[in-house]
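Can't attach files on this board, so I'm pasting raw text. These are the components:
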Amino acid sequence: MDAIVVKNLRKEYAGFTLRDCSLTLPAGCVMGLIGENGAGKSTVIRCLLHMIERTAGDIFLLGKNIDDKDFDSVKESVGVVLDEAMFPPVIHARQLNRILKNSYKNWEETLYFSYLKKFSLPEKLPFSKYSKGMKMKLSIAAALSHRAKLLILDEATSGLDPVVRDEILDIFNDFTRENDCSILISSHIVSDLEKICDYIAFLHQGELLCCEEKDRLLEKYGLIHCTKADFSAIPAEAVIGKKESPYGIEALVLREKISADLAVSPVGIEDIFLYFVKFGK
Amino acid sequence: MNLFIDNKSGSPIYDQIFTQMKSHILTGVLPEGALLPSIRALAKDLRISVITTKRAYDELEREGYIYGVAGKGFFVAKRNPSLVYEEGLRKIEEYLQHAVFLAAECGLSKNDLHDMLKILTEEDHRS
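---
Top answer:
C-alpha cells for the assembled complex are below.
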C-alpha cells in the first residue's frame, strides 16, 4: 500500500499557485521535500493535512481519500510535527501525557516517557519556558508515541543542533525500517534529508521539478569541470546547468550522455537542486 | 560479514553492496546456504534506502549468487566453481586490456610493461 498518493494537486493563492503536483510515497519509505522559501512545501503539507482547502486534485493518505467521511479513523495513524509547535503554553510534558492519553486510542505512555528521557526534556517545566529545540523535540516525542503509520514533518529538524538532529534521524530510520512506517519530511537542511530519504521531491516556485529515488538521482547526475572549449563539445541535452568563471566551467550533467573520457565527479542532492533552480538553462 | 558504504566514492550504493556481497560469496565468507540479512534489517543497519538494498539483492539473484525463498528470505546459492573461475579470468583480461591501452597512451614499450607486471607480482608475493 502507498502511504501517500497525491494526484494533480493544485492550490491557488493570490500571487502564488501550486501547480499539478503529483507524487507517491510507498509504505516503509521516507520522502524529502526540498524547496526554497516560498516554493510551496508547506502548502503541500497543509493540503495533505486538510488544514487548507485545495483548488483541485486528489489526496490519499494510508489508502484513504482525505475527503471521505470516515477519514477521521485514519487520522489516528498520522503523526504530525509542524514548524511551530502548537501545545498550550501553560501545560508541561506530564500534563500533555494525560491529555494525549485521552485523545489517542493507541497512546503509549511508556514510549512517550522514554522519549522525554532520551531527549532530556524536563517533565514539569511549562511548555512556554521550553527553548525552540525542546519544543520541537516534545512535538516529535508526541508524534512518535501514538503508533502512527505515517509521519508528516514540516521543517521539524530546523532549530536543532547537529547532535540532536542526528539522534532524531536515527529514530526516524528505526521507525521506518522496523515497522514499515512512512515519513514525509520537508526541510531546508538538505544534508539531513540526504541522510535518511529514499525519495526526494524538488519543489520550485509552486512546481514539482522532480520526484525520484534518491540513489537514482545520485547515480544519474554528476559534475564536470572543464574548459570552455571542452564544454562546447558536450551535447547540449546532457547539460542540466552550468556555473562559469574566468577559469573554467563547472556543470551538472547526465552521466549516461557524457563520453567516457571526461571525468565526472559525484554530486550531492544540494548541488543537484541548486543546479536545477539557480544555474539551470 | 563486513560491508562498507562510501557515499563519496561515486560508485552507486547498490553496486557497492552487490560487489562486496559477491566477493564475500566467492571467497566463502558467506558460505553456501547462509541466510542473508533481510532487506529491511540491512537497510536499517547501513542507514541506506530499502529500495537500493532490494536492487542489490535482485542483481545478486539474477546473476545466480543468491536465491529468495518466499516468506523466509535470501540464501547463498550453490557455488559454481567454473563460473567463479570464468569471472576471475574475465576480470583479469579486462584490467590487463586497460593497462595495455594506458601503456600505449603513455608510449610505454612492451618490455617496460612486462617489467612493471613482474615487479608488481613479486611485491604481491612478498606482502
